[in-house]
Amino acid sequence: MCSAGPGRGRVCPHQGAFLLDNVLRRWLQPPQKILQGFVEFGDTVIDLGCGPGFFTIPLARLVGPRGTVVAVDLQAPMLDRVRRKAGRHDLADRIRCHRCSSDRIGLNVAADFILAWYMVHETPRPAAYFREVRTLMKSDGRLMVVEPKMHVTRSAFTALEDAADTAGLIRLAPFGGLASRGMILSRD
Ligand SMILES: C[S@@+](CC[C@H](N)C(=O)[O-])C[C@H]1O[C@@H](n2cnc3c(N)ncnc32)[C@H](O)[C@@H]1O
Asked: Is residue 103 part of a domain?
């Protein structure tokens, strides 16, 4: 998907954003279909490592006019793309962009749903990252973590599962597909 970002702590460069939002990916990973069972009208959602907004825009449609999506990324050009798309799709009123640093999200939000798609392996310390993510979840909130098999081996994903356990998250179910390994988690 983004071939420039393998390995722990290596960030997928914004110059490769076109690889993350295109017709082929929409066919392989239809965002609305993937997310619709997890998000309701009026929800507060965080899209961690949102990149160019492949999931941000469908999430904004799913939360409706009373909901909010906070799009979080450490690269300003990725957030610029999200802002432009939000404007084009007339969804700017429900999408908030937040620039974070690599090891601190720095939000004060209680989320119903948090998406971390293809990004946790790019964070320098996943257990610490998950600890902060946990503080952003409502007590009945859900976290979806999905990682690319191309960059995250089975054993590396097991290490992420352990990091989630260490952070106090509860693993509810696996979640995946042909090219991905994932899990759904809760806070309590
Ligand atoms: C492979 S891209 C995935 C983007 C998007 N989630 C998607 O599936 O299209 C990873 C994104 O995570 C961002 N990222 C990497 N480390 C991050 C961190 N510690 N905090 C927030 N964003 C991060 C990168 O800047 C990049 O936009």
From this structure: yes
pTM for the predicted model, two decimal places: 0.95
Which of 103, 114, 122, 131 for a ligand 1 pocket mutation test, highest count of atoms within 8 Å of Cβ?
122
State the closest ligand 1 atom to the C-alpha of 1, by its place in the atom list counted from 1: 1
Number of structural domains the chain divides into? 1
pLDDT digits 0-9 by tens, 131-179: 999 999 999 999 999 999 999 999 999 999 999 999 999 999 999 888 9
Q: 17's torsion region: left (phi>0), alpha (psi -120 to 50) or beta?
A: alpha
Q: Looking at the DSSP assignment, which residues form a beta bridge with residue 175?
A: 182
| Cα 170 from Cα 182, distance rounded (Å) | 14
- Please indicate whether residue 147, judged by its CB atom, sits closer than 6 Å to ligand 1: no
Pairwise CA distance, residues 30 & 102, whole Å: 28
CATH number for the domain harbouring residue 165? 3.40.50.150
Q: Which residue has the tokens 């460069």?
A: 13
Spell out the residues 6+ positions from residue 84 whose beta carbon is closer than 8 angstroms to its own: none
What's the rounded Cα separation, in Å, for the pair 28 and 177?
A: 10
Question: Exposed, middle or buried, 65 (CB in 10 Å: 0-12/13-18/19+)?
Answer: exposed
